[in-house]
Amino acid sequence: MCDDNSAKEINIGAAIEAILFAAGGSVERERLAEALEITPDEVDARMNELLRDYEESEMGITIIKLKNSYQMVSRKEYAPQIRTVMDLRRNTPLSQAALEVLAVVAYNQPVTKAFVEQVRGVDCSGVIGSLCAKDLIEEKGRLELPGRPLLYGTTENFLRCFNISDLEQLPPLPEEELEARG
To answer: Could you give the CA distance from residue 81 to residue 69 in angstroms, rounded to a whole number?
Structure first.
């Protein structure tokens, strides 16, 4: 912690809550550390304390970790009431094709549309467009090959929707399970 007394005078946990609430989206732990004049490890320690407090108090909100960012969110068990108040319709579930494309992208990213189509054996243009519109995948750059095809990868929204903090939490692929048993 720095020598400046301003960082010592504030309640770091409350400051983190205020920042996350005001941001409305995810905030990188390094940005939190910089704003609070503490180390990123101290941010993680404070976050763990906050998460315990939220769990014990059974509040309607909580904080989730997304890669190296944190976000304040409502608890999923209150989704029906939130939808009613905000007049939101439940998102339509993803089709089998969309789930397949999403799995190919998530496990192999960054990937080209041609790679996804080679794995699935069918045109995936519409599905990729739909997944981009739902902010589950995004363009991650271009491949340095003739035609410079776009590369796709998953988004922070993908992590949020599947309730995981990073891609390491994806379940193993069936081939990996078989290799592990064999």
So the answer is: 27
In the chain, what's the furthest Cα-to-Cα distance?
62
Question: Is the pTM here over 0.85, yes or no?
Answer: no
**Alpha helices, DSSP H, located in the chain:** 5-9, 12-23, 29-36, 40-57, 79-86, 96-108, 113-120, 125-133, 156-161, 174-181
**Which positions ≥6 away from 68 have C-beta within 8 Å?**
28, 29, 30
Would you state the torsion angle of the CA atoms of residues 154, 160, 166, 169, taken in this order, to the nearest 10 degrees? -110
CB 1 within 8 A of CB 38: yes
Q: Could you read off the pLDDT of 50-93 as tens digits, one per residue?
A: 988 888 887 888 888 888 899 998 888 888 887 777 765 556 68
Domains and CATH numbers, the chain: 5-84 (1.10.10.10), 96-168 (1.10.10.10)
Query: Going by DSSP bridges, is the β-strand pair 61-66/137-142 parallel, antiparallel, or unpaired?
Result: unpaired
